[in-house]
Amino acid sequence: MEARILKHYLEFGTYTNPGPYRDVIRRDLPDDIREIGLRVRSNLIHRTTLAAGNTGTNADLKFGDMTKMPWYRQPEDDVLVTAAAMLAELYRRDPRGLVMDRGVTDKLVVTCRFAAILTASILKSKGIPTRVRSGNAGYWGNRDEPDDCSVDHWINQYWDTTQGRWVTIDVDGSPHLTRIDPYDIPEGRFDLPAPAWLGIRAGRVDPQRFAYADGTRGAIVVVWSLFHDFHSLMNSEIIYVHRPVFGAQWRFPNLTSDELARIDDLARLMLDPDGNFDELCSIWNMDREFRLLTGGLL
To answer: Which residue has the higher pLDDT, 261 or 178?
Structure first.
């Protein structure tokens, strides 16, 4: 791997920058990847866990007793969009920081993107090249084969210098995975959007396999992940509601053949983001429609 590419993934972006907590993270948190993942996950509650209460995956209360949560607690995805904001709020609620015994009422209620950003912030602070990846996960449950439904999800990859490879980890999903190692997910088990998109375009992959949290299914789900993944590869891990114009629901069904071909070209480059790093950076620096965003107040 070229040193300049690893240097790129050591750099903080707006969302992964830990702010004043960098030295604290480097000093106080463990160095082991699994221990870091466990520490991160122990300080977060997924919004679906809050909604379900003490049922389903939380029947054993491994995420805490949801009956203790105040009635007014809501998901905080729209509030704590950066690692610095999450860290500041964690330390505000409990000055000990990312501890294993954090009280349930002091945990953050966020989703997978936020677990991935916090993980990336910690690993980068410790000098480990790390990137956030957006795609779809079809490996829930206890099956060896991918599920029929692949749900939108965000994970991490870190560079293992000993093995000389990117290792794919799923901190947010780690408590649920039993048949694969969440700290070394086999290649192909996480549905990266570039091959998924190209497979759909070639007629080899059923677009209805891919689902979004709001119930949306189809190719638009994959193109959302494709643009989120592209931005993440450029160290800009945009929030869910921010998408380039090609991914807007009003625009996507009316994309021209030339516009679809441009997305195809981006996806082909993203099949090998390291080998095509310069080309992806050129698109990032020059292509307004792939970089400028819509959604929210944009």
So the answer is: 261
